[in-house]
Amino acid sequence: MKHVSILIPNGHTSLVNIAGTHQIFSSVNGIAERFGKGPVFNVQLVGLSRKVPQDTGLFTVNPERLIGELERTDIIVIPAIHGDPQDGVKRNRDLIPWMVDQYKNGAELVSFCIGAYLLAATSLLKGKKCATHWAHAGAFRKMYPDVDLVDDRIMTAEDGIYTSGGAYSYLNLILYLIEKNAGRETAITAAKMFMIDIDKESQSPFIIFEGQKDHGDEIVREAQQIIEQNFQDKMTVDELASVLSLSRRSLERRFKKATSNTIVEYIQRVKIEAAKNSLETTRKNVNEVMYDVGYSDDKSFRNVFRRITGLSPIEYRNKYNRESAVING
To answer: Taking the model in full, what pTM does it have?
Structure first.
């Protein structure tokens, strides 16, 4: 039986992550029993103090164990910690050496959403893939440039370290861990019991691309503005560099450093974001949307759209356009 430590960090923590994980993992023992198996998880809330009041003033969580009382655990779950990430790490710095020691002794580490900030503070994510909420991608990369952030993924799994993307995607990671420890049959039953869509892999359909503007390069900001105001037009990197009086090589280097995208990738994402908005809110067909955002080649548009969103344009419209949802419902 695996001992699961759900951390109760100081600050404003996702109670949904805590309660949901506790409930679903605890229910697995009953499900496994139906299949003639023994108990799978022993789940406990673990913290730095006996009472952890939330910053909101609305709730207090009472950990069952303190980290100093727990010699060994098998799985450590880090819920999302809201608010300023650096402050969250600072207020919970005493958890970091304990997590590192437990990992070195064989424990697996699991972070949900922006709980990835605290996990990354252990330095155990260096060079590894990590998922977090897509809206935090830029800030996370700045704070932890040595972590391979994959902001389009719902979850990652590498060397006993697991991370999940934004918000309720933690449920998909929970199912993954259930399958890993209790088998596919038990995971499917848990998915049905809690009505969770099993086997999701991408958070791309949910990403709202707003451009990475939180950098100090004014030339790059000007380039972004030009792209965003003229995305319907065909624009080459050479033309953009000429307008900004820079060499192509210099502009590409500065753009990639500031935004974590190449110029071509940024143009594509701006175009696709406009296409997504049109598919969500208008009755235009896919070809009309394609031409509106500056594509003339149907195959190219559909390939780029699927690569960025994880869905075809038709699938995206059916999923997010209100009128399509009513008709298909």
So the answer is: 0.69
